[in-house]
Amino acid sequence: MGRKWNNIKEKKASKDASTSRIYAKFGRLIYVAAKQGEPNPESNQALKVVLERAKTYSVPKAIIDRAIEKAKGSAEENYVELRYEGFGPNGSMIIVDTLTNNVNRTAAEVRAAFSKNGGNMGVNGSVSYMFDATAVFGLEGKSVDEVLEILMEADVDVRDILEEDEAVIVYAEPDQFHAVQEAFKAMGITEFTVAELTMLAQNDVEIPEDSVAQFEKIIDTLEDIEDVQQVYHNVDLGE
């Protein structure tokens, strides 16, 4: 899973470089999660997960509070979660998760991002079957054995625990996100280098050097779309 972790780090670093865009996307996610349940993370698990993710991206408290307060109001903005799947150069696979209040606009923008950069859209299921939904946590200052002991004591099952780049990486089923988080918090661990619900490719692929720029252009264009929340792919871009 090492290369998969490198891709997550790379994607996160890329997003960290465009903070205003990330803050806006998290503001929308927080609003939707708070609107769908109680605007209190202690009683709204979906909101709690989003806030934990926002914390690893250093989303300011003011943005979080504003989104939650907006959800408490009478105004109603209807958002729909949609997933698009497609292909980049050399058969590379891409998944695009969106949150939109205008389906036609979003579909057109995603399709254009593929077609104008040498990719093409696929039908539902054409790509996602090669990915696994996964909860990923990264933390520093602990060994693999220490993390394993914490999770065993809490009776939490995970897929894998690895040590990479001086950090311990935990891969778990998506529905175990809260259980893993709470197990760590019970031991006083509240800071994570990553706390994400993501889609990991079952097999990473490499693409020719002369296709890398084209592939990265597709990814960058997709991530620039306001309604796009996450972009996943199966390409090993190295470190």
TrEMBL record:
<comment type="similarity">
    <text>Belongs to the TACO1 family. YeeN subfamily.</text>
</comment>
<dbReference type="InterPro" id="IPR048300">
    <property type="entry name" value="TACO1_YebC-like_2nd/3rd_dom"/>
</dbReference>
<dbReference type="Pfam" id="PF01709">
    <property type="entry name" value="Transcrip_reg"/>
</dbReference>
<keyword id="KW-0805">Transcription regulation</keyword>
<dbReference type="InterPro" id="IPR049083">
    <property type="entry name" value="TACO1_YebC_N"/>
</dbReference>
<dbReference type="InterPro" id="IPR002876">
    <property type="entry name" value="Transcrip_reg_TACO1-like"/>
</dbReference>
<feature type="domain" description="TACO1/YebC-like N-terminal">
    <location>
        <begin position="3"/>
        <end position="73"/>
    </location>
</feature>
<keyword id="KW-0238">DNA-binding</keyword>
<dbReference type="InterPro" id="IPR017856">
    <property type="entry name" value="Integrase-like_N"/>
</dbReference>
<dbReference type="Pfam" id="PF20772">
    <property type="entry name" value="TACO1_YebC_N"/>
</dbReference>
<keyword id="KW-0804">Transcription</keyword>
<dbReference type="GO" id="GO:0005829">
    <property type="term" value="C:cytosol"/>
</dbReference>
<keyword id="KW-0963">Cytoplasm</keyword>
<dbReference type="GO" id="GO:0006355">
    <property type="term" value="P:regulation of DNA-templated transcription"/>
</dbReference>
<dbReference type="InterPro" id="IPR026564">
    <property type="entry name" value="Transcrip_reg_TACO1-like_dom3"/>
</dbReference>
<dbReference type="GO" id="GO:0003677">
    <property type="term" value="F:DNA binding"/>
</dbReference>
<dbReference type="InterPro" id="IPR026562">
    <property type="entry name" value="Transcrip_reg_TACO1_YeeN"/>
</dbReference>
<dbReference type="InterPro" id="IPR029072">
    <property type="entry name" value="YebC-like"/>
</dbReference>
<protein>
    <recommendedName>
        <fullName>Probable transcriptional regulatory protein AWH56_013810</fullName>
    </recommendedName>
</protein>
<feature type="domain" description="TACO1/YebC-like second and third">
    <location>
        <begin position="79"/>
        <end position="235"/>
    </location>
</feature>
